[in-house]
Amino acid sequence: MVQTRTRIIDVGGRTVISVEVPKSLHVVGTTSGVYVRRALEVDGSPHCVPFPAHEMLAHEIDRGAVDFAAIPARGATASDLDPAELDRFRRLSSVSMADPILSELSDLEICRALGVWRTADDGVERPTLGAVLLFGTEAAISRHVPNHEVAFQVFDGLSLEINHFTRSPLFKAAEDVFHRVSVWNREEELQFGMLRIALPALPAQVAREAIANALVHRDYTAVGPTRVTISEDAFEVTSPGGFPPGVRLDNLLTISQPRSPILADAFRRAGVVERSGRGVSLMFMSMLRLGREAPDYTQSTERLVRAIVPLGKADIAMARFVAQRENDRGRPMRLFDLQVLHELRAQSKLSATEIAHELNRTLGETRAGLNRMLEEGLVEQRGTGSRRIYHLSAAVYRALDNSPAYVRIRGTESIQHEQMVLRYVESFGPITRGKAAELCLLTPQQATRLLGRMVERGKLIRIGERKATVYDLPNAVG
């Protein structure tokens, strides 16, 4: 029973009734057995609607209180599991990157080890819904988990070339879609001296993680298939249900919070997905390392997760630079570095605040990463304080065969700085070194060099000495 507390309080001279309702770990109904939930009318006004049992279950699953895969499948028996699917799991788990010990267990031992064989309310041990999803026959899946379905579609413009639907258990469905994607996937191989780079349209690791994540993390109480779509421009994976509890767009690369820990553990132990929970980060790295756009999750809503992987033309120069650097250093580049290089390549120059916003990272983390990249010669900075901006270093531009872009950034800035100083002096009179540095986002030393060049070219004259030095237009002194 929930005990509420009602008080009358004074707020700004007005009497307000305050009702305090304690947080409950479970769905709460009235003493007469009525369960309702809040909803919005078409006009946006709030009201109460019935809260049926299946929605209660979905609510508990969505907030992480119940694992869908742990629920006993009522009436299911061992005969509802396909021995061939358990053999498939043994084959998958036998490799070194998986959990080889599981490949030596019996069918029942595998189910118990994965937590998908439990005692039901009637006291009988039986398969859970997770067992049916992982190893069940299609008939058992249709009976116990009717919302499970996987669609694979390939479009040529608006024409649907392939339209395949299946209710296969999860490992079989995943392998089937992996194979279909690999048949479609095309790869270009580039040779740069002794360095050979493979440029697939879609890295295999990206496809595997995106598909497996959708199958593992989708909401199986929600209607609709897990959909894998390939078009000329994008590889797209859509799954019913929003992000799992605690996962948002701004922490997608750092938080691993599966909707079903049981299904996630099964896929990890089978070696299908990355075991450390960094699958999404590896998807981003795989795309950026090849000079391609990162996956996009911004079209996800509270009702579905949509991962869109652009299939546009690769930035071959960037792919070559990354491959050469990794080859020289003997280790992969950091995701942060790849993201910053990608953003600065696209937008020329950005502040730390802008980079933090683009990458969904904290400002402190971003500044620390940029300082390290400065030390490693990947970026350069201009300006001081909060107005400091960053751009790719001259060495990176040379490696990208785009030295003119670096010259444009630095050369144009010099011209702009001179014009800014001249406009200031014309409007406000003599300028100091400190004011020039503030105006042009330069260090004091850079401002000194700028003003010195302008004096040498006759655009300004120097007045005074040392700290009293100011700079004015030649015709202003007379």
TrEMBL record:
<dbReference type="InterPro" id="IPR011991">
    <property type="entry name" value="ArsR-like_HTH"/>
</dbReference>
<dbReference type="InterPro" id="IPR038475">
    <property type="entry name" value="RecG_C_sf"/>
</dbReference>
<dbReference type="Pfam" id="PF13749">
    <property type="entry name" value="HATPase_c_4"/>
</dbReference>
<dbReference type="InterPro" id="IPR036388">
    <property type="entry name" value="WH-like_DNA-bd_sf"/>
</dbReference>
<dbReference type="InterPro" id="IPR009351">
    <property type="entry name" value="AlkZ-like"/>
</dbReference>
<protein>
    <submittedName>
        <fullName>Uncharacterized protein</fullName>
    </submittedName>
</protein>
<dbReference type="Pfam" id="PF06224">
    <property type="entry name" value="AlkZ-like"/>
</dbReference>
<dbReference type="InterPro" id="IPR036390">
    <property type="entry name" value="WH_DNA-bd_sf"/>
</dbReference>
